[in-house]
Design goal:
The protein is of the alpha/beta class. Helices cover 42% and strands 17% of the residues.
Length: 325
């Protein structure tokens, strides 16, 4: 479920904020007019400055109870999580809150997965593992007793508590190559903000690969403050490491390694990865361009610390204009 499109959602960043604050924020976001929410699922933050990493699945139960919003979560089944456990967690939440949970799956990052002590697979093997995990979860949601021996191993697993309708299974992709691949098997696409032409290539690859007519979701990294300088400073403090190429980000195991890799990043390098402006009208213009590309839902992630201010200002000055067309 995404709710009536276009849906404008709030992104709850577990790496940056404590779970109790995030719970207050999703309540505030609902009251401000946001239609939906999503959250990350990390073991560790991207940087020491972020400094948090609550357990997403515990938090989701509270967030679903505390609001009437639909929620999504981005997860990497196969190493830190066995796919049968992910399937059980999603099934239980979907049984309790019908139609309000979607699950996005990706191949993961070493930052989160290395804690199991298993070797970190190359991208090709991670993709193969992800596809097997997705198939296992779908079979479990369908009521099958599943045994599987491949990149993941499952022995006679059966889900005893299942929702009437399984959650939407969304494929996470950053590159056109991955977008075209997830189009073959996912119910929908989720991707992230990048320069417009690069984003268009992701959308086109998804549609060509078999995603025509399937929902497309976009996570929008942004920074808003009373001045452009303050917005850029906050984005640089919190999100500069996320300007690194995805191929680098997925291979590093610890926040300090990511920080070291990002020492060359300057505040000007943030453009393209984060939309920075003190003008709500400029953010509105960007979001309208996203909707014109065909995205069904936009999940807004203010990368700076002033979350309450962001929700208040965007709820008052941006969301009503988007609803008005």
């Amino acid at each position: 479920m995404i709710v009536a499109t276009p849906a404008i959602g709030f992104h709850a960043s577990h790496e940056q904020f404590a779970p109790d604050r995030l719970l207050r924020l999703v309540r505030q976001a609902e009251a401000a007019g946001f239609h939906a929410a999503m959250c990350s699922d990390h073991w560790a933050p991207w940087s020491e400055a972020q400094g948090q990493s609550g357990f997403a699945w515990s938090w989701l139960g509270s967030a679903l109870e505390a609001t009437s919003l639909p929620f999504g979560v981005v997860n990497a089944p196969g190493q830190r999580y066995h796919p049968a456990i992910v399937a059980q967690a999603a099934a239980t939440l979907s049984a309790m809150y019908p139609g309000r949970l979607w699950l996005a799956v990706g191949s993961g990052q070493r930052l989160n997965e290395h804690i199991t002590g298993e070797a970190w697979p190359v991208k090709e093997d991670r993709n193969a593992r992800l596809r097997e995990a997705a198939d296992v979860m779908r079979r479990l949601w369908a009521g099958e007793t599943v045994s599987h021996d491949g990149h993941v191993t499952v022995s006679e697993a059966r889900l005893w508590t299942r929702p009437a309708e399984p959650p939407m299974l969304v494929g996470a992709a950053v590159t056109p190559q991955t977008a075209g691949w997830v189009a073959e098997w996912a119910d929908a696409l989720i991707t992230v903000v990048q320069p417009r032409e690069a984003l268009r290539k992701v959308v086109d690859a998804f549609r060509r690969g078999g995603g025509e007519g399937k929902p497309m979701l976009l996570q929008v990294h942004l920074a808003y403050a009373p001045t452009d300088e303050e917005a850029r400073d906050a984005a640089f403090a919190q999100w500069r490491q996320n300007t690194l190429p995805n191929s680098v980000m997925t291979e590093l195991a610890h926040p300090e390694q990511i920080a070291a890799a990002a020492t060359h990043v300057t505040p000007d390098d943030l453009d393209g990865a984060v939309r920075i402006s003190s003008d709500p009208a400029r953010h509105l213009e960007w979001l309208r361009e996203d909707l014109a590309m065909g995205f069904d839902a936009l999940y807004l992630h203010e990368v700076g610390p002033e979350q309450e201010r962001f929700v208040d200002v965007f709820g008052r000055e941006v969301l009503p204009a988007l609803r008005g067309g």
